[in-house]
Design a protein that fits this description.
Number of helices: 10
GO cellular component, one term: protein-DNA complex
CATH superfamily of the largest domain: Periplasmic binding protein-like II
Number of strands: 14
Distance between the termini: 41 Å
Helix content: 25-40%
Radius of gyration: 25 Å
Shape: elongated
Largest sheet: 6 strands, mixed
Strand content: 15-25%
Order of helices and strands: HHHEEHEHEHEEEEHEHEHEEEHE
InterPro entries: LysR_HTH_N, LysR_subst-bd, WH-like_DNA-bd_sf, WH_DNA-bd_sf
Family: Belongs to the LysR transcriptional regulatory family.
Protein name: LysR family transcriptional regulator
Pfam family, one: LysR_substrate
Length: about 290
């Protein structure tokens, strides 16, 4: 059994076509078909049911696929690890990115990483902190920037604290509270809020702050996009509690400190079991922050 044969199997399963798989693998279809037949003969199994118009995995093919994928991933990791041991970082770096990163200039960090390790391909995935933690633990993401309530540090991953800050009130210009230099949550309780969807870590920070203060608030608008939240505030439809670094100066917005506002912590997280060489290299490029934690 050869690794290239496994690549052909995965390509056919993914594309549902010997022709498309051959094109994806840069090989003539006759050669690909021959290698699949050789593999099936060696295994004593039929992996694909096929006609001139249709290709499907058999039950044996379905059972074979996860092992084939794991085998290829292990082979690729072996090459990457060997290269890293020789001082050459290769492979792929998958980064999780929340929409409210303020502790790190991410484009600048990626520029430094690319200059130091040009053979590493980088994939950036947007999303929430909870999902990124799940993907790191599943081995599907290398590192992630997280934003969590101070009372809820990430679990099951290695982490480095990047920044701790109290959320600020974001108000439209002309709001009755805009001239104030400092507010309390009680001053905001009767306002309509724009916030992240219920159940997300970004929402939990504000929900927890108001609950701890024994206050109720109305969240009139929910959105994952920070730009949309800010537009709702500019339009005078709502206010919000946000990290100060995500709010542009001017542009119809005013930020006011909230003395008893919730604290938010930004982290860099990665696997606490077996981080990839690319993950270790990215952590090194970011430099030393607060002590590493688990």
């Amino acid at each position: 059994m050869e690794l290239q044969q496994l690549r052909y199997v995965l390509a056919i399963a993914r594309t549902g076509s010997f022709t498309r798989a051959a094109g994806e693998c840069f090989v003539v279809q006759s050669a690909l078909s021959h290698q699949i037949k050789v593999l099936e003969r060696e295994l004593g199994l039929t992996l694909f049911a096929r006609t001139s118009r249709r290709v499907e995995l058999t039950a044996a093919g379905e059972a074979f696929l996860p092992g084939a994928r794991a085998c290829l991933e292990a082979a690729e990791r072996a090459v990457v690890d060997a290269a890293a041991a020789a001082g050459h970082v290769r492979g792929r770096l998958v980064i999780g990115l929340i929409p409210t990163v303020t502790a790190v200039d991410v484009p600048a960090a990626l520029s430094r990483f690319r200059a130091a390790h040009p053979e590493v391909g980088v994939s950036v995935r947007g999303g929430g902190s909870t999902r990124s933690i799940e993907l790191i633990r599943a081995g599907e993401m290398d590192v992630a920037f997280l934003g969590l309530a101070a009372s809820d540090p990430p679990k099951g991953v290695a982490r480095r604290q990047l920044r701790r800050a109290r959320l600020v009130a974001v108000l439209p210009e002309g709001h009755r509270l805009a001239p104030r230099r400092r507010l309390r949550l009680a001053d905001l309780a009767d306002e309509a809020f724009a916030d992240f969807p219920a159940g997300t870590p970004g929402r939990a920070q504000s929900d927890g702050g108001f609950a701890a203060a024994g206050l109720h608030r109305e969240v009139a608008f929910e959105a994952m996009a920070v730009d949309l939240v800010l537009d709702l505030i500019r339009a005078g439809l709502a206010i919000a509690l946000l990290p100060p670094g995500v709010v542009p100066e001017g542009e119809g917005l005013v930020t006011v400190a909230v003395a008893d506002g919730p604290e938010r912590v930004e982290y860099l997280a990665w696997s606490d079991f077996n981080p990839s060489p690319a993950a270790r290299a990215f952590i090194e490029v970011l430099g030393e922050g607060a002590p590493d934690e688990r």
